[in-house]
Structures are given as structure tokens and as C-alpha cells.
Amino acid sequence: MQTVEELELKLSKPSERLIADVAKIHGDIMILGLGGKMGPSLSKLLKKAIDKAGISKRIMGASRFSNETMYNELSNFGIECHKVDLLNDAALNGLPDTENVIYMAGNKFGTAGNEHFTWAMNAYLPGRVAEKYKHSNIVVFSTGNIYPFMPIESGGAKENVRPSPIGEYAQSCLGRERVFEHFSVKNGTKMLLYRLNYALDLRYGVLLEVAKKVISEKPIDLSMGHVNVIWQGDANEYAIRSLLHCQSPANKLNITGPETISVQWLAEQFGKHFEKKPIFENKPAETALLNNASRSFDLFGKPFVSLNEMIMMTVEWVKSGGKEISKPTHFQERRGDF
Questions:
Q1: Which residues in the chain land under pLDDT 70?
Q2: Are strands 279-281 and 219-221 parallel, antiparallel or unpaired?
Q3: How far is 79 from 89, CA to CA, in rounded Å?
Q4: Which one in 172, 221, 253, 314 has a CA-CA gap of 20 to 30 Å to 289?
Q5: In this predicted structure, what is the pLDDT of residue 19?
Q6: 4-201+231-258+289-303 CATH
């Protein structure tokens, strides 16, 4: 896989299990924050699944759409796109009502020095959205950052682990959850809090960041010595299917891959393929930001794309000089400064 076109086709290919579940979702679907990293491929995946299921359903999306090309591309694909600033109450309230909402809006990158905007996006806007769509099913994109660091041997935090966010970004994400939870109880709105880490495609993500360090012979920080990852296509599928599992009070679901991955081991795998000896700095801590997604596997099955396949696709992508999205994960961060 060497081109964006090939990548997009893989990301937007619906599985039979997704097609079957899409047919069970009653009503139209609005994606808020459509223009982010995952929104475009999620909307295309959803459109293809609906077409394959042979049903009729509106797919709508709202975003600022600073990228005009993306707006035109998604519109031509059959997505009903709305250019809005979601923090503008009049614009938000002017959006169509719908039975289902996938909430992907939020702020992470550049949090440090811009904390006020991060809190507005991550903790104020959810209340406005929850009131606007009080009669909808809402899947709320959240993050495993709301959990404390977990011992490596623990297998990661399960949904019953008490949140203990580190740093303002993670704190604002817990704020997002708590505000949505409040309105789920107050209005009886059915919701699912979708705690994701770390989704990737070949243009961004933990694997690309480690691979680039290896091939450029730059030091790899092992302070956060273990991670979880999941293929973006699998994460998008799970998000769509989560619309069938919304509850009041809000349901909670961890989403990531099944492995606890050693960053050192990962770098060594890339080193073999690139014929480079990885350079390491610092020692792995006994804890890491780890997410246990076993409950999601019980609901949806294991991810289709394996860790080995992700590694091999990343090797080919890096060797061919594939396009990148300049949004680092900061997976090495232990102080919460994003």
C-alpha cells in the first residue's frame, strides 16, 4: 500500500458485521466534528455500509471545514455537509435534528498555552450539544487519557477503573464525559462514552512515529514504554456499531487493540525491516497509559487488522515516502502536557 487512494479504500471498506448492524440502526446519522482525522473515513465507511445494506439513510456532518477540498470531496461522496462553528449557538441549533449523533468534536493538539479553548471545546460544547440532541442516541468520542497510568502487567484499565486524568487536556476530556453524563441522566438521553486510544492509519499514529525515528536514526524515548493501538478502520466501525449500545445513564466502552505493545519491541521490528539499529533513551516505567478493551471485543469481535499487518503496511508506507498528517500523538507524554 503506497498511495492515499489505496489507503482510503481500505479504511472505507465495510465488513459484513458492520453492514448487518447498520441495517439495525433506526433513523439518520449526524457526525459532529466531521472534518477531523477520523471523520472523513468514518463517513465514507458508513455510506458504503448503508449502500451495501440496501437501505436509505441520510448521513450528515458538521464542521468548520477549513479544508474546502475535503468539504467538496465528502459532499460529492453523498455526505450532507454543514459548514458551522459548533461553538456558535445559533449555528449549532440550526443543524437538522436526527435520531443518531456521532460526536467527534474536541481539541487536543496545542492544548498547552490555549487551555481556555480546550475547555470550551471539550467541556462547554458538550452541554450545548446534549441539549440540542436530547432525543437522539449519541456516541461520544472520548479517550483513555481519563484513566490513571496502569501497571504494565495489569492488561490496562477496564471501564470500572476510577478516572484520574493527568494534565489539563485529560481533565477537560473527563469534563466532556461528566457533562454528557449529566444530560444523559437529566434528559434520559441514550449515550455511549467511546474511550479510544490510539487509533492510527498510515499517515499518522504511534507506529508511524516509531518507524520514522528508527529509519532516521533518532533516539526513541522509552519513558512510556508500552502502548495500545488500533487500526482506524476498525475504530470507525466500532463507533458506528456503538449506536446500537447507547443507554441512559451513559454506557462506557474502551476501544483499542488487544495487545499491550512494548515500544522497544516495536522499534526493533522496524529496525529489522529498515536494517537499522534503533537508538533508545530512558528506561521504561513500570506503568503506562493502557486501555483494556475486552468488553468491546465481546460486543463487536476482535479488530480485523492485526498488529503485524499494521507494522508491515507502515514499513511499506515509510519506504515509499507516503503522505503524512502532522498531528503527533504525544504518546510518550507522562505529565499530560499536550
A1: 109-112
A2: parallel
A3: 23
A4: 314
A5: 98
A6: 3.40.50.720
Residue with cell 444523559: 184
The pLDDT, as a whole number, for residue 110 is 61
Pairing of strands 261-262, 80-83: unpaired
Take residue 320 and report the three cell numbers written for it.
515509499
Cα separation values, 290 from 51, 145, 256, 333, Å: 36, 9, 9, 13
Dihedral over Cα of 253, 258, 260, 266: its sign: negative
Task: Give 3-state DSSP helix, strand, coil % of the chain, rounded to 5.
Answer: 45, 15, 40
For residue 114, the model assigns a pLDDT of 83
Checking phi first, is residue 88 left (phi over 0); if not, alpha (psi -120 to 50) or beta? beta
Question: 238 phi and psi, to 5 degrees?
Answer: -60, -35
Reading the block at residue 95, the C-alpha cell is: 443543524
Write out the H or E segment, with its range, that includes residue 81. Answer: strand 80-83
Q: Identify which of 244, 159, 261, 127 has the alpha carbon closest to the alpha carbon of residue 207.
A: 261
Q: What is the pLDDT of residues 49-103, one digit of tens each?
A: 999 999 999 999 999 998 899 999 999 999 999 999 999 999 999 999 999 999 9
Map out the domains of the chain as residue ranges. 4-201+231-258+289-303
Q: What is the pLDDT of residue 92?
A: 97
Contact 175, 119 (CB under 8 A): yes
The C-alpha cell at 8 is 482510503
Q: How far apart (Å, rounded) are the C-alpha atoms in residues 29 and 50?
A: 11
Structure pTM? 0.96
Q: What is the pLDDT of residues 215-253, one digit of tens each?
A: 999 999 999 999 999 999 999 999 999 999 999 999 999
Q: Please give the pLDDT value at position 109.
A: 63
- Report the Cα 308 to chain-centroid distance in Å: 20
The bridge status of strand 80-83 relative to strand 100-103 is unpaired
Contact 224, 283 (CB under 8 A): no
**8 Å CB contact between 266 and 211:** no
